[in-house]
Amino acid sequence: MYRSPSSASLMRQSPRLPARELSAPARLYHKKVVDHYENPRNVGSLDKTAKNVGTGLVGAPACGDVMKLQIQVDEKGKIVDARFKTFGCGSAIASSSLATEWVKGKTVEEALTIKNTDIAKELCLPPVKLHCSMLAEDAIKAALADFKLKQEPKKGDAEKK
Amino acid sequence: MWGWRAGALLRGWGRRLVGAPGRRLLSCHAASQAGNSAPRCWKCGSPRGPARGDGLFCPQCSALQPPDPTRDYFSLLDCHHSFRIDTTKLQRKYQQLQRLVHPDFFSQRSQTEKEFSEKHSTMVNEAYKTLLAPLSRGLYLLKLHGIDIPEGTDYEMDNQFLVEIMEINEKLAEAQNEAAIKEVESTVRGTRFGVISQDLHGDFSLRGENLNDVGGMEKQKQGWRTKQVYENCESGEEDGRERMKE
């Protein structure tokens, strides 16, 4: 039986500050971040071959984080489902988890307006983790772009064959 | 401070800068004469002069001097300024330095020296840790040459590579037993990771002596990004094994 990965398995480190942050004043993960880590929302996958599914896959090499965000859109252009899988720090996981919560119920156009600063503010991310929220914003945009590409007429495919 | 710093610079770069050191020392000295105070011991006020014990102690009163935070790790641990280093020698130098600066040896000294010793010891630890592991050593070397891997999304990352990393991480997250983890391990280490590592180390070592090759450095940057991601896979393996114990 497939056991969907809990966020505990998604997180490489326990909620401890990575070594490079030890020079900053000691800081714990904000409770909102811990909440997303312990009670993940929308972890999983959608069928990436489906025409109404957009998949965004982004990476941040400096910290080695990888984030996948998928959206399912109905005929009216409204996002009806979203899933994510993120391998990285707690802030990255929380940012993508929150992103999937926020895109649900929005149209494709509305989802484009989600900003990393809003995500960071909602999760009270410290300055060193702002890039995690940016990664989530990029994942949303990548998923939307992938979806839009799939809606385009197929003459491109015909040329490839 | 100039004399001390110039001394440190000489030790690190002297081998390569034939003729230049004398000139550099003079110009530092000139600058110090121009207005800055000459390097003096904080305790006895005598000029620092010729370095004793790696420039750590005052030649007159033996008081521990403050660390130079701008000193690069290679010169601090007396290593060749290149990727290929002698890790045995590194370890020996590390232990030697800690025997001189560790706070345990300053418990009876003044508060100022205690604080300096803490800073020295921390810096030596940081330097040793950075230079010991190939990944951090490579990244540090790139940083010294002004090449930083910026934080945040890399928009040019190869999609296929990301898919591969996702799959590796997912397999690790789902692994139910040691055999499954070992399988992922052999994939990561054996095929791609192993090949990339060898390429990087070999390439870096060859290039190590000529780090002005911009094209080469860009390629190094790409390579080290990849290596970082693979190292994260390794910690994923560790986490998997931790999970098995629960």
TrEMBL record, chain A:
Alphabetical UniProt keywords: Iron, Metal-binding, Transit peptide
Residues covered by the NIF system FeS cluster assembly NifU N-terminal domain: 29-151
Gene Ontology molecular function: iron ion binding; iron-sulfur cluster binding
GO cellular component: mitochondrial [2Fe-2S] assembly complex
Entry keyword Iron: yes
CDD domains: IscU_like
Cited InterPro entries: ISCU, NIF_FeS_clus_asmbl_NifU_N
GO biological process: [4Fe-4S] cluster assembly
UniProt xrefs under Gene3D superfamilies: 3.90.1010.10
Signal peptide: none
NCBIfam families on file: iscU
Similarity-based family: Belongs to the NifU family.
Role noted for this protein: Mitochondrial scaffold protein, of the core iron-sulfur cluster (ISC) assembly complex, that provides the structural architecture on which the [2Fe-2S] clusters are assembled. The core iron-sulfur cluster (ISC) assembly complex is involved in the de novo synthesis of a [2Fe-2S] cluster, the first step of the mitochondrial iron-sulfur protein biogenesis. This process is initiated by the cysteine desulfurase complex (NFS1:LYRM4:NDUFAB1) that produces persulfide which is delivered on the scaffold protein ISCU in a FXN-dependent manner.
Protein name, per record: Iron-sulfur cluster assembly enzyme ISCU
Native species: Fukomys damarensis (Damaraland mole rat)
